[in-house]
Amino acid sequence: MNIRNLLCTAAFCAVAGLGAGHASAAESQDTIKIALNEWTGQQLSARIAAELLRKMDYKVELVTAGGLPQFTAMAKGELHANPEVWDNSITDIYTNGLASGELVNLGDLGLKPRDGWIYPPYMAELCPGLPSYQALYDCTQAFSNAETFPDGRLIAYPADWGTRSQQLVAALELPFKAVPGGSEGAMIAELKGAIAAKQPIVMMMWEPHWIFSQMDLNWVEWDASDGNCVESEESRGKACGFAQAHVNKIVSASFPDKWPNAAKFMEKYTLTNDEQSRLIFEVDQDHRPIEEVVAEWIDQNKDKWSVWTAP
Amino acid sequence: MPAGMLLVAFALVCVLLSARYPWLVRFPAAAELPVAAAFNMALSAFEARTESAFKLVSRLLTSPMSMVRTALQLTPWSMVVLGFVAMAWRAGGIGFAAFVGASLLYVLGIGLWEQTMNSLALVILSVPISIIIGFGIGYLAFASKRAERLTNPLLDILQTVPAFAYLLPLLLLFGFGPVVGLIASIVFAFPAMVRNTMLGLRNVPSDILEAGEMAGATGRQLFWQVRIPSARYQLLVGVNQTTMAALSMVIIASIIGGTNDIGWTVLSAMRKADFGSSILAGIVIALLAMILDRLTAGFATRAKTHRSQKDIPFRAFAALVAAGLMVMYGASTRFDQLAAWPADWIADPSESLNRGIEALVLFTRPVLDAVKTGMLFFVMLPLKIGLQKVVGPASWGFQPGIWHVVGYVALAVSAASFALLKGRDVAASAILLVAILFYVGLTGLPWPVMVAVVLALGYRLGGLRLVAISGFALGFLLLTGSWQKAMLSVYLGSLAVILSFAIGSALGVLASENETFSRLMRPVNDTMQTMPQFVLLIPVVMLFAIGDFTALIAIIFYAYVPAFRYAEAGLRQVDGRVVEAATSLGTTRLQRLVHVKLPLAIPNLMLGLNQTIVYGIGMLVIAALVGTSDLGQEVYIGLSAGNFGQGMVAGLGMAAIAMLADSFCKAWQRHYRTRIRNG
User: Fold this and answer.
1) CA distance B120 to B99
2) Which of A266, B50, B107, B181 is exposed most, by the fewest CB atoms within 10 A?
3) What is the distance between the alpha carbons of residues B375 and B361, in angstroms, rounded to a whole number?
4) Where does the ABC-type glycine betaine transport system substrate-binding domain lie (chain A) (predicted)?
5) What is the CATH number of the domain that holds B489?
6) In this complex, do A92 and B641 lie within 8 Å of one another by their Cβ atoms?
7) How far is it, in rounded angstroms, from Cα B583 to Cα B581?
C-alpha cells in the first residue's frame, strides 16, 4: 500500500467503484497498449483487462504480439502491459528486463499452471506401472518408434520454448528421446492422431489448457517432494518433475508512473484456473465470439472487478 | 590416378581418422567466428541511429491502413461482389466472372467475410507501394550499371532468405501492430517488381527506340512514351508476381501483427489443431490468390493482345458497372441482407471435416506406419546417421557383423570396378563416395570430405567461378557454426527435392498424355501452391506423427507442383512435326514418349528441378513447425529468443544452401547442353 492509496478519499473511491472513475490529473492520456498473444487463455486475460481499463476511462489498444518477441517491445515501452506472462518459457530479454527494471512485475495473476508429462488412459494397460515415472524405464518399447528406437519417444515442447524435457530425460537417465514438438498445433494434432488410432504417446503438456476439457488425460507422477522442485538437482529416485511456473502480470517500466490507477488495477487483477478454463472452453469448443464471452464475464462479475477498478 | 579416386581415398582417410580426431566431424568451435553477435551489434547500432525515421514511416502508414480496412468493412458485401465480378468479366470473360462470384459466395457462406476483407486491405495497400518501390529500384538498376551490380545479389538474398528471419528486425525497427505486417509483405513482394522492371525496360526492341529517336523524342519522352509502353506487358507480369507474393505473406504478417484477418484465422485454427476450420480458411486464401492472379494476369495479356471487336468500350463498361454499384448501394440500404450477410445463412462444416480426418487416421494409420517405418529404416536414417548406426535387430532384423561390412564394401567395390571397366571413371568414384556417405551418414561425414567433393564437382561443372561460390557458401556454414544443422537441412531438403521432383515429373508426364487427368489436377495444383502451407501440417501430423518423415511429406505436398507444371508444359511444347515423324515410323506411344518427347523436354524438366529446389528449401522453415531440428528450427528459435543474429545466420545458411544447389543445377545444365552440342 502506498501513500496515494491512503490519501484516496472515501467519496472519490465510491464514485470510482461504480465504474465511472475519472483518471486523476497525474494520469497520462496516452493509449495503453496491451499485448495479445497467440493462445486463447491469454487473449481472455488481456481482453478482460482491456475492457475493465476502458471502464476506468483509459484508452486501450490490443496489439497482436508473439509470445516471446513481445518482451523486446515491452522493454522499449512500445507495448505497455501483458496480464498473463508464463515464466516457464521465457528468454533472456525477459529475465534481463526484470533485472534492469525495463520490465516490471505487478504480481501473480492467480492462475496455477502445471507443466508435466501426460498420457491417455489406455496407456495404463500397455504400461501397467503408470502413473509413476518409474514405470517408463520398463516400458520403453511400448513408446518406441522408428525414429527413436531403441529408446522410447517423448514429445517435448517446441524447440523455441526451451529444452526442459530433454534435460530431465538426461538427468533421470531415462531411456527416452525427447522429440521437439514443433508447435502447439503439431502437438495437439499428434495427440489427436494418436488417440484416434489408440497408439502409444507420452507428451509434455501444460494446464490450464482446453484439451483437458475435451479429452481424458493423465499426468505422469513423480517422487513425493517437499514443495519446491529444483530441476537441476533431480535424479532417478529423487525426481520431482518440473518447477511449476508462475503467471505474472508484466508491464513496461514507465507504466506505473504514467498510469498510476491502471497500475493499481493491474496489481489487484486475478483469475482462477476454473474461471479461465470455462471461458476458454466457451471460445474454443462452443465457437462463441471471444468479445461476447468477455462481455458476459464482465456482466456477471461486477462484485469482483469493482474492487479492482476502485483507485 | 584419376581425380575422382583421389577424392575417394581422401574421404576414406578422413572417415577412418574421424574416430580419433572428432574435429573432423564437428568443426572446432574455437575456429568459429561470432557472426551472430556481429549481426546483433550492427542491428542495434543501426536501430539507434535510424529508429525515429522508421517509426515515422510506420506512423504514416497507420492511418491509410485503417482507412482501407474500414472502407472495405463498411461497403456492403453485395457491392464488393459486384465490383469483383465485373472486373473478372473484363479480365477473363464470363467463365472467370462466374468463378469469382462463386468464390466470394463461399467466403460469405462460411462466415469469413470480415477477415477476408481485412486481408484484402493489406494486399490493396501493399501492392501499389511494392510496385512503386520496385519500379524505382528497377529503373535505377536499368539506368546505372553499378546499381545493377549491387541490386542483383541483394534480390537473390531477399528472395531466398526465409521471411521469418527478417521479421525480428522489422519488429524492432517499425514497432508492433498491423503496420509491420504490411511492411513485411512489401519487403517480400517488391523484388519481383524490380526484376520484371529491369527485364522489361531492357528488352525493348531497338528498332522501336530508333523510330522514337527519329521522330525527335526527347530523352524523357523516349522513356515515358516509347520505352514504358513497349515494356508494358513485362511490367504487368511484375504486378502479377508482386500481388501473389504480397498475398503469400498474409499469414506470416499475421504472426507478427494481425488481428482478425484470414491469416490469423488459419493460425489460431492451426494452434488448436482444428483441421476443419484451418482448411476452410486456407481455401479462402487459395481462392483469393487465384482470383488476384487471374485478374492481374488477365489484364497483362490484354495489354499484349489486341482488343477484340466484341469488347464493350471501357467507358461504357465503367459507366454500366458504376450504375450497377449505385443500384446495389440503394438496394442494400433497403434490405439489410444485402449489406451484411445474415448470420443464419452461414454454414460451418468444420466439425464434420474434423470427424472425417479422424476416421481417416483410424483407417489408414497401420498402413501408413508401415510405409513410414520402412522409409525411415532403409532410406532416411541411413542418409541421416549412416548404416553403421541404423542396422540392428530392431530395424533391419539382424545384428551386423564383420561379414556384413565386408559384403557392403565388396558390393560397392565391384559396382565401381564394373563402371571403371566400362570406362566411366566419374561414375566409379561417385559410387564409392555414395557408399561411404551411406555408411557414415550425412551427420557423421567429416566436413573436409564434403567440402572437397563439392569443390571438385564445382570445378568440373562450372570452373573456378563455381569453386569460389561453393567455397564462400561452405565457409559461411562452417565458420558460423551452422554445419551440423545445415547437414540436417541438406538431408531433409535433398530427399524432399528428389522425391518431389520424381513424383511431380511423373505426374506431369501423365498429365501431358491424358487430358482428363490434366484437367483434374489443375485445381489441385493451384490449391496446393496458393493455400498457406501451414494448413497441410495438421492432417499430415495426425497421419504420420511428429518427426522428419512428416516434415518430408509436408515439403513434398508443396514442392511437387513446379516439377509437375514444367514437365507437363515441356512435353506439350514438343514440336508436333517431330512427333508426327516418329508416329509415321511406326513407333508405339510409349516409345514416342521415352525416346522422342522426353529427351526434347529435358530443358523444361531442368527448369522444374531448379524451382523444386527453391520451393523445397523454402518450405524447410515451415516444416520446422512439425518438429525438425535443422536450420529452419534455428530461424524460429532466433525469432522467439529475440536473437536477430541467430535467426539471420540460420536464414542466410539456408539461402546459401539454396543458391549453391541452384548454381550447381544450372552449371550441370550448361555442361549437359555443351555435351549434347559436341555430340
Assistant:
1) 18
2) B50
3) 19
4) 30-300
5) 1.10.3720.10
6) yes
7) 5
Share of chain B above pLDDT 90, in %: 41
Helix (H) or strand (E) holding A61: strand A60-64
Residue A7: pLDDT over 60: no
Lowest mean pLDDT among A120-129, B69-78, B293-302, B460-469: B293-302
Enumerate the residues of chain A whose CB falls inside 8 A of the CB of residue B381.
Answer: 146-147
Domain around B394 = 374-443
Residue B161 · residue B654 · CB < 8 Å: yes
Q: Could you say which of B256, B395, B636 has the minimum Cβ distance to residue A160? A: B636
CA proximity to B532, closest of B212, B296, B321, B248 = B248
C-alpha A270/C-alpha A305 separation (Å) is 9
pLDDT for A273 = 86
**Segment among B82-86, B273-277, B435-439 with least mean pLDDT:** B273-277
**Burial class (CB within 10 angstroms; exposed 0-12, middle 13-18, buried 19+) of B156:** middle
Interface size, chain A vs chain B, as Cβ–Cβ contacts under 8 Å: 169
| Nearest-neighbour CA in chain A from B136: distance (Å) | 32
Q: How far is B436 from chain A (nearest CA, A)?
A: 22
Phi, psi of A168 (to 5 degrees): -65, -45
Chain A residue at shortest CA distance from B272:
A185
Q: What is the pLDDT of residues B480-538, one digit of tens each?
A: 999 999 999 999 999 999 999 999 999 999 999 999 999 999 889 988 888 888 888 88
Domains of chain A: 27-112+246-306 (3.40.190.10), 114-233 (3.40.190.100)
Q: Flag whether pLDDT at A5 surpasses 60.
A: no
Of B274, B291, B306, the position where a domain reaches its end is B274
Cα-based angle B184, B190, B192 (whole degrees, multiple of 5): 130
| Amino acid identity for residue B62 in this structure | T
Q: Which residues 265-304 of A are in CB contact (within 8 Å) with B?
A: 284, 287
Chain B CB contacts of A103 below 8 Å: none
Distance from CA of A186 to the nearest CA of B (A): 6
Give the residue from A132, A157, A131 showing the smallest Cα distance to A236. A132
Give pTM, 2 decimals.
Answer: 0.87
